[in-house]
Write a structure and sequence with these properties.
mainly alpha
C-alpha cells in the first residue's frame, strides 16, 4: 500500500491528471459553445468535422503504440534498467516521426476525397490540407505523453497537458477574431499542438543520457500494442452502433436528444479515467518486479477510488436527470431521462472494469481486449436492431449499456484467471448504500419542488452533504483507507486532507 501512495508520482500526480482531463473537457465545451453562439450552423458543422478528422488520424496512425511504450517504460522502471528506458524513448520518438510523416502523406493524398465525403463538396480540400498543421503534432503528443506516463511523471504530464490544450482552443479563438475565416481554426489548433510537442520533448530531454543501449526490440512493443490498437477501433465502432441505428431508424430529433444523453455520460468518465491512466503504469512496474500482491492491492485501491467518486455521481445525476436535461437542452430533451438513468446506473455497477482492464494491460494480457471489444460490438448491434424500433431511445440505451456488461464479463473472467482480482466488498457495499440513500433523498427533494432547473445547484449541494453524512454514518472508509487517501492528496491541499480525515 505504501508503494502505491509514495512520492509525487501518485500524490500530486493524480491531482494534475484530473486537472488535465478537466481542462480538456471544459476547454473543448467552451470552444464549441463559443462557435455555436457566434457563427452560423454551417461553420459550426464544418468545425465539428475538422475536429472529428483530427481525432480520427491519431487513433489510426499511432497503432496503439503509446500504450506499448507506456507499459515497457514503466516495466523498465520496475527492472531498474535505465539504459533500456533511454533506448525506448529514442525508439518511440523516431517511430512517432515516421508515423506522423505517413499520416501527412495519407492526408495529402486523400484530402480531395475527404472533402467530398465529409463536406459533400471539393471546395473544402484546402481546408482539409491545413490539418497537416495539426495531425503530426497530435500523433506525437499521444506518443510522448504515453512515454511521460510510463516514466510516471504524472504531475508534469498533467501540467503540460493543461497548457497545450488551452493553447489549442485559445489560439483558434484569437485567430478566428483576427482572420474572420474558418481557416483560422486549424491554424490555431496547430499552434497549440506544436507547443505541446515542444513542451513534452523538452521535458523528456531533461535528465536523459546522450547515448543509451538496451535489449527491447520494436517488435515486442508492436506485439503488445496491436491488440490494443484493434480493440480501440472495435470499441469505437461498438460505441457508435446504437447512434447510427437511431439515426437510421428514427428522426433527427431523436438523435439530437440521444447525443446529449451520451455527452453527459461521457462527461462522467472524467471521474475515473485519470485513475486508470496512472494505475496502468504502476501495474507495469509491479509486473516487472513479479509482485502480484501489489497488483492485486492496486486493483482493490483503484476500484475503491473509482467507486467512491463515480457511483454517487452516477446515482445523483440519475436522480436529477429531468431538471438537468431540461436546463441543458430544453423540455423536449426530458424524454432522454430514462435512457440516461439506464446508462449511468449500469456504468456504476460495472465501474471495476477499468481497474481489471488496467491490471490485464499491465501484465501483458492484451489479446483479451480484442475478444471483449468484438463481443461488445456484436451485442450492441444485435440489441440495437432488436429494441430501437419498438423502444426507441430506451432500446438504444440498453444496447449501449450491453457494451459495458459484455466487456466486463469477459475481462472479469480473464482477470480471475490471471489472479489479479481483489475487491473490498465491505467498502463497496457501504459506498452503494450511501449513494442510494443520497440519490433517494435528492429525488424526493427535487420531486417535492417540481424538478425546477433553477434549484439544480441546491439539489447538488443536498446530494453532496447527504452522501458525506452517509459515508461517515456507515464508516465506509476504514482508518487505513483514510490514511491512504490523505497520503494521495498533496500537502498543499491541506483543507482537503483535513476534510478526508473527518469522514
Amino acid at each position: 500500500m505504501e508503494e502505491l501512495s509514495r512520492k509525487e508520482s501518485i500524490g500530486s500526480g493524480i491531482v494534475f491528471q484530473y486537472a488535465y482531463f478537466a481542462a480538456m473537457t471544459l476547454s473543448g465545451a467552451a470552444f464549441y459553445l463559443y462557435v455555436t453562439h457566434l457563427y452560423p450552423t454551417s461553420v459550426v458543422g464544418s468545425i465539428s468535422l475538422l475536429l472529428a478528422i483530427v481525432g480520427l488520424f491519431p487513433a489510426f496512425f499511432t497503432l496503439g503504440l503509446q500504450y506499448g511504450w507506456q507499459h515497457f517504460v514503466s516495466y523498465g522502471i520496475g527492472q531498474g534498467d535505465s539504459e533500456e528506458i533511454g533506448r525506448l524513448i529514442r525508439q518511440a520518438m523516431r517511430t512517432g516521426l515516421l508515423l506522423s510523416l505517413a499520416a501527412v502523406l495519407f492526408l495529402v493524398a486523400t484530402a480531395h476525397y475527404i472533402s467530398i465525403f465529409f463536406f459533400h463538396t471539393a471546395e473544402y480540400t484546402n481546408l482539409v490540407l491545413l490539418l497537416t498543421l495539426d495531425i503530426p503534432s497530435a500523433i506525437m503528443i499521444s506518443i510522448l505523453n504515453g512515454i511521460m506516463m510510463g516514466l510516471q511523471r504524472f504531475r508534469n504530464s498533467g501540467i503540460i497537458g493543461m497548457s497545450y490544450i488551452v493553447l489549442v482552443y485559445g489560439s483558434a479563438v484569437v485567430l478566428m477574431n483576427v482572420l474572420h475565416s474558418i481557416e483560422a481554426v486549424p491554424i490555431g489548433w496547430g499552434i497549440g499542438y506544436l507547443a505541446g510537442v515542444i513542451l513534452y520533448y523538452t521535458e523528456l530531454r531533461r535528465g536523459r543520457r546522450a547515448k543509451a543501449t538496451g535489449r527491447r526490440e520494436i517488435g515486442d512493443v508492436f506485439r503488445y500494442s496491436i491488440p490494443l490498437y484493434a480493440t480501440g477501433i472495435l470499441s469505437f465502432g461498438a460505441s457508435y452502433i446504437d447512434r447510427l441505428t437511431v439515426a437510421f431508424l428514427k428522426d433527427l430529433s431523436s438523435i439530437g436528444i440521444y447525443t446529449l444523453v451520451l455527452l453527459i455520460v461521457s462527461g462522467t468518465t472524467l471521474l475515473s479515467s485519470p485513475i486508470g491512466s496512472i494505475i496502468f503504469s504502476k501495474f507495469s512496474e509491479f509486473y516487472a518486479r513479479k509482485d502480484n500482491e501489489m497488483i492485486r492491492e492496486g486493483v482493490r485501491i483503484s476500484v475503491n477510488a473509482a467507486s467512491v467518486l463515480y457511483v454517487p455521481s452516477a446515482l445523483g445525476l440519475s436522480a436529477l436527470a429531468v431538471p438537468m436535461l431540461r436546463v441543458l437542452g430544453g423540455p423536449a430533451y426530458v424524454v432522454g431521462s430514462i435512457p440516461l438513468v439506464i446508462i449511468l446506473v449500469v456504468n456504476g455497477l460495472f465501474i471495476a472494469k477499468g481497474s481489471f482492464s488496467s491490471a490485464l494491460q499491465g501484465t501483458r494480457k492484451t489479446k483479451v481486449f480484442v475478444l471483449s471489444a468484438s463481443m461488445s460490438l456484436l451485442s450492441n448491434l444485435v440489441l440495437s436492431l432488436m429494441l430501437i424500433p419498438t423502444f426507441s431511445l430506451i432500446g438504444a440505451a440498453i444496447g449501449y449499456s450491453s457494451i459495458i456488461v459484455v466487456s466486463f464479463a469477459i475481462i472479469l473472467y480473464y482477470a480471475l484467471k490471471a489472479h489479479v482480482v481483489m475487491v473490498d466488498m465491505r467498502m463497496l457495499s457501504r459506498i452503494w448504500l450511501s449513494s442510494i440513500v443520497m440519490a433517494a433523498l435528492v429525488y424526493l427533494f427535487a420531486a417535492a419542488t417540481g424538478f425546477l432547473g433553477v434549484l439544480l445547484p441546491l439539489y447538488v449541494i443536498t446530494g453532496v452533504v447527504a452522501y458525506i453524512a452517509m459515508l461517515r454514518l456507515t464508516s465506509a472508509l476504514s482508518n487505513a483507507d483514510k490514511q491512504l487517501l490523505i497520503n494521495l492528496i498533496p500537502k498543499s491541499l491541506a483543507p482537503v486532507r483535513a476534510f478526508v480525515d473527518l469522514l
